Amino acid sequence: MAFNDAVFTAREVPKGGFGQRDGTATRFRAEPDSREAALLRLEQFAHLMDTAFVIPGINRRVGLDAVIGLVPIVGDAAGMLLASYIVYEARRLGAPRWLLARMAMNVAFDGVIGAVPLAGDIFDAAFKANRRNVRLLRRHLEKTGGLRPNEIEGTAVRLDG
After folding, report:
1. Pairing of strands 60-62, 53-55
2. Which residues contact 32 (CB under 8 A, 6 or more apart)?
3. Which long-range contacts (CB under 8 A, 24 or more apart) does 58-65 make?
4. For the whole model, what pTM was predicted?
5. DSSP code, position 4
6. Strand, coil or helix: what is 137?
7. Distance (Å, rounded) from C-alpha 105 to C-alpha 91?
8. Which residue, 6, 69, 72, 116, is most buried by CB atoms nearer than 10 A?
9. For 155, how many CA atoms within 13 A lie in the half-sphere containing its CB?
10. Angle at 86 between CA 83 and CA 87, to 5 degrees
11. Residue 128, Cβ neighbours under 10 Å: how many?
């Protein structure tokens, strides 16, 4: 496969992009309609929902899902609705039914257990269904060739000349 035929297309971001202050490093971003861009949006959404804030003193990360889950019933329903967005996007990206079902089960499990007062809120902060679902989707897309691997599998060998 030639370089121009690569699945991943990228553009150079001008100075100041993605929190870059001095423009010294070259940063790339995915095309807006690509799978990489969609997965990046989902990863950012999952971060906001599951790990955006640090609880002082215990250094435990929680997100908006745990915070809105503190509101009885309505908060857990809202969290399930927001988490369903990841399942919707996975369907749009062509995920198979078995994967969509597994992701939906993660959302439902998180919502049902999260509805239990206090213990459910602690579970909700630990389970992180959104990050699990994005990780499942990323693995599937990497295995099926719909996405370049984030990590390279294998063993590094040093060649001394």
Report:
1. antiparallel
2. none
3. 60/125, 62/125, 63/128, 63/130, 65/110, 65/124, 65/129, 65/130
4. 0.71
5. G
6. helix
7. 15
8. 69
9. 3
10. 95
11. 22
